[in-house]
Design goal:
The protein is of the alpha+beta class and 129 residues long. The chain contains 2 helices and 6 strands, in the order βββαβαββ. It has a 6-stranded mixed sheet, covered by helices on one side. α1 packs across α2 (87-97). One of its GO terms (molecular function) is hydrolase activity.
Length: 129
């Protein structure tokens, strides 16, 4: 079994975790830790849950591209939304990024008391390539 920890360039680096862990045996499975719309330079950019969701999905796409995968390879999402924000706005943002021709993955949504400063959504994913 081959296990690799990946941290694609341009994404925020925190010494306490990897952006994703790739396990190859017998197929490649990519476990992507909870992501936000923060980048390595400017921090959080979006103010609304919709803005943060779109940017977060683009961050996840960057991680997947580093492993020759796309959002279409995602089989499960885990979404944490700060209480007081609307899940339907997060879903609408997903629709802006997700290709409707791809089968939708499973999803788990949690409402939480808080995340990082200015952060209203965090998304993790599991992809199989």
């Amino acid at each position: 079994m081959n296990v690799r920890h990946i941290n694609p360039g341009g994404l925020h680096r925190a010494g306490a975790f990897s952006q994703a862990v790739v396990v190859e045996h017998p197929t490649k499975t990519i476990w992507i830790g909870g992501q936000s719309d923060a980048d390595a330079v400017s921090g959080f950019a979006g103010r609304t849950i919709g803005e943060q969701t779109v940017r977060t999905l683009r961050t996840i796409a960057t991680v997947l591209e580093a492993e020759d995968a796309t959002l279409a390879n995602v089989v499960h999402w885990t979404v944490a939304i700060v209480e007081g924000n609307r899940a339907d706005e997060c879903l609408a943002a997903f629709r802006q990024v997700w290709d409707p021709a791809d089968p939708p993955p499973a999803v788990t949504v949690h409402f939480v008391a808080g995340l990082g400063p200015d952060q209203v959504v965090q998304i993790g994913a599991v992809a199989v390539v």
